[in-house]
UniProtKB/TrEMBL annotation:
Gene3D superfamilies assigned: TrpR-like
Family annotation (InterPro entries): Trp_repress, Trp_repressor/repl_initiator, TrpR-like_sf, YecD_YerC
NCBIfam families xrefs: yecD_yerC
Species assigned in the record: Ruminococcus gauvreauii
PANTHER family registered for this protein in UniProt: LMO1763 PROTEIN, TRPR-LIKE PROTEIN YERC_YECD
Name of this protein: YerC/YecD family TrpR-related protein
Length: 96
């Protein structure tokens, strides 16, 4: 069975996210939708991606973020072979 994220339910979730108007609204929504650990994991991956882009070593990243080497490797794979989602957001947020 093929897995795809392109479903009506995911479309509706993304529409809900796009309707949020402030960081405070994001906190309110995501604290209801995600567990604290899920939210912290997402933010950790984003931090790992930023540090990988800055050419930090796995050791530096792990020490600063607490991420496992498996997580760092997974994020690195997304940066290298993914859909360029991180790069798109980094560019829009002027993250270097």
């Amino acid at each position: 069975m093929s897995k795809t994220i392109h479903t009506e339910a995911v479309d509706q979730l993304f529409e809900a996210i796009l309707s949020l108007k402030s960081k405070e609204e994001c906190y309110t929504f995501f604290e209801d939708v995600c567990t604290i650990n899920e939210l912290l994991s997402l933010s950790q991956r984003f931090e790992v991606a930023k540090m990988l882009q800055q050419k930090k070593t796995y050791l530096e990243i792990s020490e600063k973020t607490g991420a496992s080497t498996a997580t760092i490797s997974r994020v690195n794979r997304s940066l290298t072979y993914g859909n360029d989602g991180y790069e798109m957001v980094f560019e829009r947020l002027n993250i270097k």
